[in-house]
Design a protein that fits this description.
The complex is a heterodimer of chains A (about 400) and B (about 280). Chain A has about 400 residues and is of the alpha/beta class. Chain A folds into 2 domains: about 240 residues, Rossmann fold, CATH 3.40.50.970; about 130 residues, Rossmann fold (3-Layer(aba) Sandwich), CATH 3.40.50. Chain A has 13 helices and 15 strands. In chain B, a hairpin with an 8-residue loop joins strand 2 and strand 3. Classes of the chains: A alpha/beta (about 400), B alpha/beta (about 280). Chains A and B meet through helix 10 of A and helix 1 and strand 2 of B.
């Protein structure tokens, strides 16, 4: 028996912002995110949400206004996608280093050129080093649940950092599936009002985020670094508190399925992990020892937990829907980094694909499993494979590094 | 798990049909996943929607490539090879057509047809075939019973439109016809060489040259044809400036419209001050 009602992940996020009793929303429309702020604008216009909705002229301004609001101690939210997120880049660094606990939904979309409105993770990954915490939703329910958790994580005095909730464009943002919208009273028991801060107060004027000398600059970075590491603890605590309150597992750092005895483990971010779960269940039913790790927290990156989870595996297939040109799959690189120095560790195969809306589906995953099998049998295989790419005329394929 | 693919044109309500069934499924304690495939999502453009139904939560998040049922809201879409592509042996093909449509399939399927066009025209005065197609599809597929289907339609539409849509579904439920369709060798036609068969065929950046757009001759998107009465036309040229596609040209005799690219939006007919243009049946 199912409950809830059919809705898109964009609606689910809008409900989360409403349930979180956000005070200020400043945003600019962009496909596939637009439906989030459309829904919030309607909630505000209909008097169902007591927020100030600020229409701005660009994403840069959207984030600047959100930072200003959050610096005044109120709960602030924004949402964007792709080019919009990239346009925020300067303010992305500002938000994290100014330690404002903003929550932003990023509806993952490919980056131009060529133009493409469909899903991949290049937008989020390109903001990796701005200092934002980044969570990835697998389902529409996660999009709602993670947004609620994101406020509690961001505002925790041990953290005080902005959180980006990533949800895959179209695959989640425009897909209708059952979502349970919790009652406001229940959410209020989980998410208290934002703890009071006294950063900006006209009665007591002061300057924040001014100029500092080299001696002091690094001190602020060290505080920021420690806060981001502490988020590893806070994200797990908040995930457990959420599970207890709502009886749903939709938080934490990693979600493991069939990993403990698996020979081959897939690692992925976002909705691709959901499709991989369905394949893992099918493979298990025919006796294959395959598991999947869904990376729910990309920043902070749970390196120790990742290494422990992969300790018993022989091959890890890490799926990247983004790329660091001239280097490799970002998630694959981080998984390899997590395994550094560990005695017991798998071979890491870097699967690259699902760009610009291309599927990470049964066809690609069956091929990836064959590849992992070949590696496990000791046959020479490339360590990186691009899926869905044509061959050159001379027969070469873009597999492997040259 | 049951998988359905709906082919229609932007504005025909294919996604709405999928969502109505999804809501009926949820009430029945099942899980559903309804989603559109986004492309040139303009009125008249070929669009697809997908529906998955299962007793368990649905984890698979890819387009439906091997559908149990294919619903075709506009029979002209059968000219496109991808419309019936991947349909499962013994699957169901439901088409908006007055007579059994001629279509080649590579596996044996059941074919159903209903005059959703006629039903829509008589009830709504225009082409919104989705609820009629929903009625035909539910009847022959058996996924939703008639009462549950009608409840889901009533709950979807505002009260003033609900009963007409229920009536459309009911008429289609009563009039849909079914036949067996054998596999055909012609369905295995060559895939056709793409201009970009190899990676080195691509330029280093995406490049387009002036000419026919990627969507091709968009005239096939039309569900109505503009018909000009040159006796009435006063050659004011308002239709020329109003046409969003720039396909109306002023001539000595009045106006001509390039039907290769006209999408049948009807703006020219709406803007004409002397009612010299009307929206008529396609190809009439």
């Amino acid at each position: 028996m199912t409950s809830g009602r059919n809705m898109t992940a964009t609606s689910a996020v809008a409900y989360a912002a409403r349930l979180a009793q956000v005070d200020v929303v400043a945003a600019y429309p962009i496909t596939p995110q637009t439906r989030i702020i459309e829904a919030i604008a309607k909630f505000v216009a209909d008097g169902e949400m007591k927020a100030q909705f600020v229409q701005v002229e660009s994403e840069h301004s959207a984030l600047a206004a959100t930072i200003a609001a959050s610096s005044n101690g109120v709960r602030a939210f924004t949402a964007t996608s792709s080019q919009g997120l990239l346009y925020m880049h300067e303010m992305m660094h500002w938000a994290a280093s100014a330690r404002v606990p903003i929550v932003m939904a990023n509806v993952n979309r490919a980056v131009a050129p060529p133009w493409n409105i469909y899903g991949d993770h290049q937008d989020a990954i390109s903001q990796r080093d701005t200092g934002w915490l980044q969570l990835f939703a697998e389902t529409n329910q996660h999009a709602l649940d993670m947004t609620l958790q994101a406020f509690r994580i961001a505002e925790d005095p041990r953290v005080q950092l902005p959180v980006m909730v990533n949800l895959d464009g179209f695959t989640l943002s425009h897909t209708y599936e059952p979502v349970v919208v919790p009652e406001p009273e229940v959410v209020n028991r989980f998410l208290a009002p934002r703890p009071a801060v006294d950063w900006l107060d006209v009665e007591h004027p002061k300057t924040i985020n001014g100029v500092v000398s080299p001696e002091h600059y690094i001190q602020f970075r060290a505080l920021q670094k420690d806060a981001a590491r502490r988020a590893l603890v806070v994200i797990e605590e908040v995930g457990e508190a959420f599970a207890e309150q709502f009886c749903r597992d939709s938080g934490g750092l990693l979600s493991l399925e069939q990993v403990s005895d698996a020979e081959i483990v897939f690692v992925a971010l976002g909705s691709a992990a959901s499709t991989i779960r369905s394949m893992v269940r099918a493979w298990r039913s025919v006796g294959r020892k395959v598991g999947v790790i869904s990376v729910r927290s990309y920043r902070p990156f749970p390196d120790a937990k990742m290494a422990e989870a992969l300790a018993g595996a022989r091959v890890a297939v890490v799926w990247d829907r983004a790329y660091s040109f001239g280097c490799g799959g970002p998630l694959a690189g981080e998984v390899k980094g997590a395994l550094y120095g560990r005695e017991s560790r798998p071979v890491v195969l870097s699967a690259v694909g699902g760009f610009g809306g291309a599927p990470v589906g049964p066809t690609e995953l069956e091929k990836a499993l064959e590849w992992a099998d070949a590696s496990m049998q000791g046959r020479p295989v490339p360590l990186e494979t691009w899926f869905g790419v044509k061959a050159y005329r001379d027969g070469r394929t873009p597999d492997g590094k040259e | 798990m049951k998988e359905v693919r709906i082919h229609g044109r932007g504005g025909q309500g294919g996604l709405t049909a999928a969502r109505i069934v999804a809501n009926a499924m949820l009430k029945d304690g099942k899980n559903a996943q309804a989603f559109p495939e986004f492309g040139p999502e303009r009125r008249g453009a070929p669009v697809r929607s997908y529906l998955r139904i299962d007793d368990r939560p649905i984890l698979l998040r890819t387009p439906v490539t091997a559908p149990d049922a294919v619903v075709v809201m506009d029979a002209t879409l059968l000219e496109r090879r991808d419309t019936v592509l991947g349909i499962k042996p013994g699957g169901l093909l439901v088409v908006n057509a007055r007579e059994c449509p001629k279509v080649a399939v590579s596996v044996a399927v059941r074919i159903a047809w209903v005059d959703a066009m006629g039903i829509s025209a008589s009830l709504f005065g225009r082409q919104i075939p989705n609820t009629a197609m929903l009625g035909a599809w539910c009847r022959v597929d058996g996924i939703v019973g008639q009462a549950a289907m009608e409840t889901a339609i009533r709950e979807w539409f505002p009260a003033k439109h609900a009963e007409k849509n229920v009536e459309a579904a009911r008429r289609a439920w009563d009039s849909v016809q079914v036949a067996d369709l054998a596999a055909s060798a012609t369905a295995e036609a060559a895939k056709g060489e793409t201009a970009f068969a190899y990676l080195d065929d691509y330029p280093i950046v995406a490049t387009a040259y002036p000419g026919e757009g990627g969507a091709g001759r968009t005239g096939s998107w039309r569900v109505t044809d503009p018909v000009v009465d040159s006796e009435r036309c006063v050659r004011c040229g308002r239709c020329v400036t109003a046409c969003p596609e720039g396909v109306v040209v002023l001539t000595e005799d009045g106006v001509t419209i390039d039907l290769m690219y006209c999408k049948g939006c009807g703006i020219c007919a709406l803007e004409c001050p002397v009612k010299a243009i009307r929206s008529g049946e396609v190809g009439a």
